[in-house]
């Protein structure tokens, strides 16, 4: 019974060619309209974000999720195709972007409302996943707080870029681009700015920091 109905429908469609043509035409028009709407919406968002400025007070008042979206929007402002990926199990990546020449920038965001500092364990996490898991050419950690002395040392060893409170003000408030802020050359040299050291981490796990207290939302 069902097979007879299917055959009847197929026969009707092919015996009346204008039905098929009309259906195909509607599909093409619908796809074209959707594509134009998507491009227009993307262009409007890019234009709106081109003048984006965020004060440190604005950023401090945000929650951790809003801070991740703000980081994404600042990257879009700078001409980077960025998307927020942060969620449970994100493997030390909250925002991933691709610049105009295809370089992949992986960002870990750490928002604090108490002025505490990001410690070295975060550096180990980012160093262990940025390139192997996310294909990063450049890894960045951004916070509205600051970094411990040990974290800054590890950043130099791993060649991970750090954006602390002072750098964040220049980026978000003053409008300097991310490439200018981090002094990134174009095109990015794949993984020469990061050194993967996961085997060392397996044998020598990082010790708990005493010099700084980590407390993030």
UniProtKB/TrEMBL annotation:
PANTHER family: MRR RESTRICTION SYSTEM PROTEIN, SLL1429 PROTEIN
Cited Gene3D superfamilies: 3.40.1350.10
Key words, A-Z: Membrane, Transmembrane, Transmembrane helix
Domain Restriction endonuclease type IV Mrr residue range list: 59-171
Pfam families: Mrr_cat (PF04471)
Annotated protein name in UniProt: Restriction system protein
Species this chain originates from: Streptosporangium lutulentum
Transmembrane segments: 6-35
InterPro entries per the UniProt record, alphabetical: Restrct_endonuc-II-like, Restrct_endonuc_IV_Mrr, tRNA_endonuc-like_dom_sf, Type_IV_Methyl-Rstrct_Enzyme
């Amino acid at each position: 019974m069902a097979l007879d109905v299917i055959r009847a429908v197929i026969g009707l469609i092919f015996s009346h060619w204008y039905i098929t043509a009309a259906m195909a035409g509607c599909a093409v028009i619908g796809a074209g309209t959707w594509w134009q709407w998507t491009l227009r919406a993307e262009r409007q968002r890019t234009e709106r974000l081109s003048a984006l400025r965020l004060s440190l007070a604005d950023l401090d008042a945000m929650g951790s999720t809003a801070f991740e979206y703000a980081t994404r929007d600042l990257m879009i402002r700078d001409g980077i195709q960025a998307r927020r990926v942060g969620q449970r199990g994100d493997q030390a990546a909250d925002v991933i972007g691709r610049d105009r020449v295809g370089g992949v920038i992986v960002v870990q965001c750490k928002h604090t409302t108490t002025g505490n500092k990001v410690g070295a364990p975060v550096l180990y996490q980012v160093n262990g996943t940025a390139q192997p898991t996310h294909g990063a050419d450049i890894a960045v950690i951004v916070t509205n707080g600051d970094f411990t002395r040990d974290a800054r040392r590890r950043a130099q060893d791993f060649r991970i870029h750090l954006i602390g409170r002072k750098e964040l003000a220049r980026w978000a408030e003053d409008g300097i681009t991310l490439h200018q802020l981090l002094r990134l050359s174009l095109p990015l040299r794949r993984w020469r700015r990061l050194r993967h050291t996961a085997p060392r981490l397996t044998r020598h796990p990082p010790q708990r920091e005493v010099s700084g207290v980590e407390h993030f939302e």
